[in-house]
Batch of 3 targets.
Target 1
Amino acid sequence: MKRDELANIIFQNISNQKENLKNKFLNHSDEIGFFYLDDLLPEEIALKVYKCFPSLVDTVKRNSIRELKYTAFQMDKYDSILEEITYAFQDMKLVKLIADICDISEVYADENLYAGGLSLMEKGNFLNPHLDNSHDKDRNRWRVLNLLYYVTPGWELDFGGNLEVWPKGLKKNQITIESKFNRLVVMATHQNSWHSVSKVQVDKVRCCVSNYYFSDKPLLKSDTFHVTTFRGRPKEKIKDLILRVDNTLRQGLRVLFKKGVRENPHQYKK
């Protein structure tokens, strides 16, 4: 299927639940706005997307104290349906619909897939609590929404690899959103939107299609520029200290070099 066909299906399904989704997002918007919608696509299409995900050896491994996962963003290397579904979320009418649900104006998709694309996590993989980079690759627009579409069939809560949001900060309990098959999650990103992914506990690969939306204005008036900022979990005291130092060093470099010391390779080079 082509991206416009996929976008039309997604648009219709979201439109049918628009008011419900809007209420869900706005109920959390004073902290971290989010909503999720299940059965986003017909099951056979969602399964097709999953089956076409690349093997781990054909992806980029990200392994550090901050995270352990695999990413894929050079979309022309993979089955075409993966590029089509990724860019279906960038269809203009769909962008406007989701922006309206989240009560955000001047929202833009990111054709460069800066930090977006495909995400894969196997047993032992994790993503520590973090704030997403505040801007796009050229530091012209503010990152405002994170879209995550999960496609691994049969995924269960106990498998781990689930999205966690920390609306009260890292000293309070998180909200866990299961990485359920055929589920779309939309989450606000700003300087208080701490989120993470729990460690995968099973010998399966959790697959996700990821997009970010940007705007000319930040979500919060208090938002300031920041690099992707990681923290330790509440019990990871030493790790948290190391990550705080790491954040300070990387932030300092970006103050000196607006676009970074080197170009971030995580973008689709067409």
Target 2
Amino acid sequence: MTRKITILDLKKMKDEGEKITMITAYDFCFAKIFSDAGIDIILVGDSAANVVCGMDSTLPITMDEMIFLSRAVARAKPDALIVGDMPFMSYHTSVDEAVANAGRFIKEGFAETVKLEGGQNVKEKIMAMTDMDIPVMGHIGLTPQSVHKMGGYKVQGKDDVSRKKLLNDAKAVEEAGAFAVVLEAVPSDLAKEITESIDIPTIGIGAGIDCDGQVLVMHDILGLTFGKRPKFVKEYVNLKETIENTVKEFIDEVHDEKFPTDKHIYS
């Protein structure tokens, strides 16, 4: 029997040089599979807007929808740490609303921690959440909820000004009390510098090998996405093709009256 992962375990893993693994999940089934496989962190990601709901960005998904997904994941009782991804406008208007919505993730969604995007601009909100004993994971670099401001999904920190900003963002997140920070679409040398300059774990996605851990969206890993994939994605298996062929076989057997057979029929 494995032991439940906590934020203290993640800090210990960084200190001891043990890599951290994180994957998204949005339901009971995959949360159970991923936890049984030994994943450290399950992120109930706002990427559900794209990969589950078919939306063009993460912006439209709501708190109620995210809580519904988080509850489904939590029912798997994973050994992995559950992180609830705070959706757009759930923490943007005021500190009080940010804390209240983070609390909803814990109380209603049964998440154990929350994640929010931003650096220096959300420092006060991270501090307020952690003051209320809500563990927070930060997220800097390419922050998809800021896609319109950034002018698209682009690598961040490529010039001196933005590089310095990201370094300051990482330190601000740490100072605010976050237990870890996601670095998305950041040059690998900058990710390495950030990882070495802060004491909390860094989780990379398109940020190179020197981060303390790595995260990917489950649909990308499993080959269940449609359209162009980002450069940093590795497809480990093509389940889309396997599933399609399986369903075609079912259709053919029904048409040809090969299913159900006697062993599938009650007498």
Target 3
Amino acid sequence: MSKKQLNHLLLLLLLLAFLSPGCAHKSATPNHAASNDSQLHQNRQITTAEPEQIPSAPGIEEESGDDFSDDELDLFDDEFEEDKVHVADPLAFWNRGVFHFNDKFYFWVLKPVARGYRVVVPSTARIGVRNFFTNLTTPIRLVNCILQWKWQAANAEFARFLINSTVGVLGFGNPAKKYPKLNPSEEDLGQTLGAYGIGNGFYVVWPFLGPSTLRDSVGLVGDYFLNPVFYVEPMEAAVGIRAYEIVNETSLRIGDYESLKKAAINPYEALRDAYIQHRNSKVKE
């Protein structure tokens, strides 16, 4: 890699850091995280609810007005423990501090900018822009499908690219969406490394970038070399393109992070567990 390309990568990563809404991977959407977090929130509520609010577990008779026995409550705890996501978090002190910093950045900087942009640009145009960038980043998904030997998914990615680039007018439209077989799950290098048996490593929250793991952080850097925007010259133009993409994407997702945070008893732990659960499920697909 030339020194110029390295500087290019570092600047793009820095820009992404200053504009990302708190998730390093686009596939880990706030809607999904919110649904996972809601389940985690419900699990915590059950262990602290009044007796009449606790649903009966299989094989347990509930008597109205009576408390559950210790054995019955232990049964619930064991069941919920099976669904709990575990990841090493040796940097918890750092991670919690960065999490709160990112939270303030989202509410004080990124969200106001995205809201102003949303007022000016209609939703149809913003969705078209998102479609364009999704189409443009086909190489990331296509190469990782090949690296995972997912030939059917690779063929679907290539076919979707051809259809959306032509019929969809450079990808601003998404006619391939009508065909489920042409819309496989998204792939990235972090998932590819996971498919090769590489574990998450430890959990880490990056300033501005948000939740990640050691494995996914390496994958994020690798995916930049497959993103055509990385090779745009001059470098300032590439930075501007990436900035616009992030603001546009955030304008379409305002409210998702807010819902997750509102539903959580402990937002830091909820976001961490939801992120790891989502990434693990993506690797298994």
